[in-house]
């Protein structure tokens, strides 16, 4: 009888340990939402295309479908390893506060009660970055934006860099959300190197105040991990053993080396959507430790037929409404708490 | 523990509130606008406190900048941008007013202090916050970055590209990684679908009549809006049905090499679904005009689509035309117009969609004939066409195709939920296909290249030989082409004496009435298990008959086969096409000669399951098909009075297919994939009857079998991607029919071969190397073998009954299958710069064999020969060896440009030039003649098709 009891207890402990394991995993994610615009005309930005009369015939019906699809996708993030999903999700390509509120109040997400950190940015396209956070897992202490002003081109307007300071699993946490200038037009790598310098500057000033600060730099960087902006300016390393204190680790470097990407362009995968972490999250004695990184390339997010078979299933192809999700996959990084 | 929890949650709540409040604070930190000129205002107030604290410092900085650029500012080269912001009032109108006044006040101060003018400024007013601040005015000097930094940008761009190349190659080295990626899912579809072999081999190598893996075209299945459109009689898709409708038949889904898709179980030669639903097109119009020097020389197409409109409707229409009064082959002409209309309605938020399509492309064209090397050499013209001649000074072609295949498709899509979709479609088309040819009852053979009109026939008489050689080499059209005037003359004479016309033009019709109903379901059975499956019903009537197209001035002909061979007693009956209407007079438009239907019905059901996991993708599937067909003769033929009129034997087939495959994903860049499949297939009705025009008779029919497998390694590195595959396909119990006209016996001969085995195997390589960001090199090629693998049984029937049927083994084993080059490749370079596209391709082929004739591989053909007699043996050698057509190399180039114009218009043009080296002696195919004269082995030489010399296609598109 005693033997059975001990077996039973052993089982109970193991099971609880296993579920506790799940409970001790925290996820953070980033998702480029592909043009989440409302249907109203905002005279200060170029959003004519995203109005009912515009090129995309962006009606309330399509907007509602977009909200449903994006909220559904977000509701699926990190569910294999966590009970409640990501502690926070950096997002890009959102028009304004209203679309974010519609998103977090949608049926798939309303039970979580996501909080929103958002500031309007001067970007001409009208798209901003923002942070959605699960108040049960992450609390916000303060936030601010850092403007992007290149001295050589003061007229060049793009997304600001968003910094959110908060608490994750009882630890002080700093999140920097980015959407760097795209590769189109004659914007060279320099514009992204400059963007990288802003984030680097923020990270350095946080480190100065606290060398053990836990920092996450995430975003659609429009560059791959081995491009100059990320590799050199940010100095994010691809291997854990190469990262010294005060430096940054990019777990997505290894993923791209293996051919995993977050968007497909001209026959190749790129991994622009990265989550880069501070060395303090790698240390074994750290209470929150990096566990793994993934590109969330689930089946439902992939186009299954047609010429773009295998690509992320996006919302628009040209001006054809595909009722999909985004041309980017979400990316996720997991931490375990000791 | 509970107490701690309560404390923790309180702290958390407090921190949350604090953080939330912190959110709403306007930034007071001084660093926020370090580099900007931002003036602060009191909420809801438009007064500009220029001398207060921060504002004073900003104003000083602004004035310093204005001083620096004062001259340019005053000259209007550098505008001063003043943006007023207000977001603290409660209505948009109030904010608008306040923002306007704020900007005005700031501007006034600057004008007064700096002596500037109103037109040196640009002003904007905004009712939103600026970086979180609701009450500011922002001032900027609009320096012109383009002028200053363009050189720098270009150099930067180049440096960036080079560093990117280097960075990518650096990252290629594979070392131990420390990121746990074992459970990261790998998606293979995008890379597999980006197959360079498919894109190159299809288009670039079609000039050599290359067919991938040697598979006949009936192994490639085509669907439109999910409905199958390979006909049930010959099994092929009628591409002419969408001729000149390229712009609306461009998009779809394709799968290769026995792979399955969401619309189909798949087929050996691949399957493609063309999406022509009205809502699938982008809104807008497109017009194109093309010039070419091939079968037609001008083409134009116009397409307009409303796109899917908010009310759920979509309309797309297209019109097209192709024309030439004479193509590159003499005596051929091309007249074609095409139309397409698509209507779609979606409802219930797109959950349901109903779409209707109708299209057609009626065409009338003059055909070319293949001819002997002798005629090509005599005329010095490899594009000689024996089908035409002069009539009253105008060119007239005796072989004209008139075809029209109007199609109607009704398709319903039901998006049941995120994972499931059901598509049901009903398709109907009426394919009218008619092909004319000359026929004659009395009088000499009107074909100019009839062997008795060629010098080679007179090799024993030097005067005749010289006479005929001279005539041919003089290019005298009354010798080298059909002499229509002579034919009219002969008919005139026969009319005078009340005789049937000596010559006439008949039209052989092979019409098709086909209905297809199918339904396809895709769904997810479990997290990593996807299912796709469907059912299909098809019903076809293939109506075959001939009509009298032109009496050529004569009065009538008789519906008899004048060359029917039979004993004197039976001759009167044997020569009748229709014993129920003996010796009927036939006038223009009447049906005569033969008339029968093939009623073909089939049903099938199929499914494919796929399981995906991190490292492995596995699929398996099956298909069951029931086919039945029956001949329904409309005439009681004199040779087969008991076995021609009425419904014949019903032939039924039950066929099965299984397929399975797996893909192992080393990582996201390398996969290895293998597939295997075994299928049985009912014989095509087209191949099943020994002499379908006159009798229901068939040989024992059985389903053919097919066992196929392939293995591929697919890779995608940043600058190099491609695929290498090895495949093996074994065909068993195949049926083929060769038909030809025997001019001595004056009858059609059908030679059916049954129980035939074939093998097709080889290696394919597709490779794409991105040398620089603008330059890419591609290669696609295959080394393969296609040959016959046994000695099947052949049966010869003579339609006029001049000889009894002959059943005899045909020695096919190890002869090559003709029709497609077995070694072939293309190497190309593509250059893309500033929206110019340049391409250059070198193409080479070899191991293209002539189509062999079964008669020449029968033992009885050589029964009279003695192997010990050298001339006999030589004749045997000549007649039984299979000619390999000479290998060839061609060069193609193309150039194109796309221009983006205002208002989303665009224009593009493209010029492609093929066979730049103008090689006119390349033989793209040929066939051995059915007839043979053992004593004179070179008498019935093979016929060939030649490739056109330099040819081009120039296309201009305009989108608006």
Quick recap of the structure?
Helix content of chain A is 24%, strand content 29%.
Task: Give your account of this protein's structure.
The complex is a heterodimer of chains A (338) and B (960). With 338 residues, chain A is α+β, with helices and mostly antiparallel strands. Chain A has a single domain, classed as Endonuclease/exonuclease/phosphatase (Deoxyribonuclease I, Chain A, 4-Layer Sandwich). Helix content of chain A is 24%, strand content 29%. Chain A has helices spanning 2-23, 60-76, 97-104, 189-209, 228-233, 252-257; strands spanning 25-36, 88-94, 115-118, 128-133, 138-146, 161-168, 171-179, 214-220, 236-237, 248-249, 263-265, 268-270, 273-278, 288-295, 316-317, 320-321, 331-337. Chain A is globular, with a radius of gyration of 20 Å. Chain A starts with a helix and ends with a strand. Chain B has a domain at 35-145: OmpA-like domain (60s Ribosomal Protein L30, Chain: A, 2-Layer Sandwich). In chain B, 40% of the residues are buried. Chains A and B meet through helix 2, strand 5, helix 6, strand 14 and strand 16 of A and helix 1, helix 5 and helix 6 of B.
Helices and strands in order, then pairings?
The complex is a heterodimer of chains A (338) and B (960).
Chain A (H helix, E strand, L loop, with lengths): L1 H22 L1 E12 L23 H17 L11 E7 L2 H8 L10 E4 L9 E6 L4 E9 L14 E8 L2 E9 L9 H21 L4 E7 L7 H6 L2 E2 L10 E2 L2 H6 L5 E3 L2 E3 L2 E6 L9 E8 L20 E2 L2 E2 L9 E7 L1
Parallel strand pairs in A: 1-2, 7-8, 9-10
Antiparallel strand pairs in A: 1-17, 2-4, 3-4, 5-6, 6-7, 8-13, 10-13, 11-12, 14-17, 15-16
Helix pairs in contact in A: 2-3
Chain B lengths: L1 H23 L12 E4 L12 H16 L1 H5 L5 E7 L5 H23 L6 E6 L8 E7 L3 H26 L18 H5 L2 H9 L16 E4 L2 E2 L23 E4 L15 E4 L9 E9 L5 E8 L7 E12 L9 E14 L4 E9 L2 E4 L4 E2 H7 L8 E4 L2 E4 L2 E5 L2 E9 L5 E20 L21 H12 L3 H4 L1 E2 H13 L6 E24 L2 E22 L6 E2 L9 H7 L10 E2 L4 E22 L3 E18 L12 E20 L4 E12 L3 H4 L15 E13 L3 E23 L4 E24 L4 E14 L4 E6 L7 E4 L13 E11 L2 E11 L1 E2 L20 H11 L3 E2 L2 E13 L5 E9 L8 E5 L15 E4 L4 E9 L1
Parallel strand pairs in B: 2-3, 5-8, 16-21
Antiparallel strand pairs in B: 1-4, 2-4, 5-6, 7-8, 9-10, 9-44, 10-11, 11-12, 12-13, 12-14, 13-19, 14-18, 15-43, 16-17, 18-20, 19-20, 20-22, 22-23, 23-26, 24-25, 26-27, 27-28, 28-29, 29-30, 30-31, 31-32, 32-33, 32-34, 33-36, 34-35, 36-37, 37-40, 38-39, 40-41, 41-44, 42-43
